[in-house]
Amino acid sequence: MGPPGPVIGYNRLQPVVTRYFLTLIQVSPLKLNMSLYPHLSQPQYRRCGITTKVCPTFPCIHVPCQDPDYLADYEEFLANNQVHEKTWELYNSLYGRTPSYTLKEQLSVAEWAFYDPKVERCRRLEGKKEQIRQERKAHEIRARIQYRMEEEELFNDESLKDHPFIIRRKEDRRRGNLP
Fold first, then answer.
1. Are 78 and 40 in contact (CB under 8 A)?
2. CB 106 within 8 Å of CB 96
3. What is the DSSP string of 124-151?
4. CA 78 to centroid of chain Cα atoms
5. pLDDT digit string (tens) for 43-94?
6. Structural domains of the chain, count
7. Residue 31 belongs to a domain
8. Are the beta carbons of 104 and 93 closer than 8 angstroms?
9. Predicted model pTM
10. Quick one: 1 and 36 in the same domain?
């Protein structure tokens, strides 16, 4: 038997329970049209709310940071972790505390042409580190507020009062005197 939830054509709303969220993720055989971030835009990497499916666009307001360099770096991390790690190794070797061109000199001209824009992205990210940290912090505060509001809606929804997750979460609140 498939996961619970309404079925409309081939689309399904599938509940996913994580430590903090009961999320309904839209599962569809159609590929999301999010070509700049084909990995990062996938539902499994997004947290658009407790009760809502993922937003139809990406990046959406639920992304911790809207900075294009941040998003491109995270996309590369998901798409090709080896390239991501090598890029940051090159950046650190060139711009770190003790700069050295040894790692760069081991690359062919074609390889450096591939890595050069990625290393520049790392440099820009380092320059915006505090701005990105502040944006992520503000996002975390907004996400907590949204989570609490949506959680209250779930707790007060009569159709979910017997759901094991809701029962367990209410009991956790009672035991810990959580708000």
1. yes
2. no
3. HHHHTHHHHHHHHHHHHHHHHHHHHHHH
4. 10
5. 888 888 766 678 888 898 889 999 999 999 999 999 999 999 999 999 999 9
6. 2
7. yes
8. yes
9. 0.68
10. yes
